[in-house]
Fold this protein.
Amino acid sequence: MATPIPGNRAALDARSVAAATGGVLLRAGDGRVTRGVTTDSRAVTPGCAFVALRGERVDGHAFVDAAIGAGAALVVVEPGRAPSDARAAVVEVGDTLAAWGAIAREHLRAWRRASPDARLVAITGSAGKTTTKELCAALLRTAGETLATTGNLNNRIGVPAVLLQLEPRHRFAVIEVGMSVPGEIADLASLLEPDVGVVVNVGLAHAGGVGGSVDDVAREKGALFAAVREGGTCVANADDRAVMGQLDRAPGRRRARFGREPGAEVRLVSREPAGLEGSRVAVQRAGRPTTFTLPIPGDAAAVDFVAALAAAEAAAGELDDGRVTAALRAVEPMAGRMQVRRAGGVTVLDDAYNANPASMRAAIATLGETREGRRVAVLGEMKELGPSAAHEHETLGEALATAGVALLISCGGLADATARAAKSRGVDVVLAGSAQEAARVAIDRLRPGDVVLVKGSRSVGAERVVEALLGGAGREGR
């Protein structure tokens, strides 16, 4: 499910790369400006730059000679790894991953210098950041050309790759910021220097990697607010105390709150569910109420919408209702994120991309709003929750029962604790040991008219269940 690194046409020269990265220019080459920069030797084009990243399984330095042979005019390497081939300019840096980010930051700054009205929106959150990003980008496209993160390019490799795609034609950039280790958001935010920083919510996603508590996650997420540029805006969830508690890290910055709280500048006044078709949402901003049709099901999506609207208007100024409506009509389903798919008489809610307690509860609640047939869930374990993992899985049993789920199929691991808790509340359950086995059980047990939610952490591979259902769903079940 990883997203390929996109190409770019960023203009670089060896001296500016050395200056941006704090590196040493070992070889100046012919002094020409390179066009494009990549970390993949297979993607090298004549005249581009190649940054040799060290990964857990692959060291890019092993491919430097191949990159030069393919036409790379500039290579960025770590100490002692300079190539013998003298055809390319060489910049030596202490850490090529840090250099990759520094090159992207300098490219971003050049974009800003060339376009004084350019604005960058950075979005993070424990759940819903991708939906918020997609909605914000759709809204901003009504005001100007917009570059947005694709797929899961939200980490130390992906964010610079997105930034390097910026061109003068872009007026806005909407960047998703993820987190898996301490300090990651702070590092990425220092590259982005956002004009608008958005924290959608704070929950236990990846809590195990940063200390284990909601406070630990809030501290990491709040680093985005701390990096907002002077004159910029912090967009905060007014209903989330952990988010609001981080605003003090950005003194002097403008604040825009979203949510259901009466004081929110962009307030979700009410929502009328329309099953799998989405919702009718009443929104109040600048004291003026408006109703919009949101084509994404569930309450969480409605909150993501007001977050996106607050962010877009912080970047572009007030958007008239016609533009907002047009943007919502243009929103496309997102693969693996509450995507409604149908096959063999069965409706699949494909939310298999990832899972944490907040997103899992939101997905279960959305399943509970369906107006169609029997409600079924195929759930995998939620990873990286730290000491709260067992408790968080067990408490989902009540949520499943409340949502009226008739059948739960577990993919194993701690999802079995969810299943046992659900069974004690009257839900029919099947314990499957893996996503593959869960797919076989689902195909056997599902019947026409069923609506099935599929969700789990990425490493569970819950997308295999979706693939199997779309290929063989709908046979008669017991």
User: Anything to note?
Assistant: The longest helix spans residues 96-114.
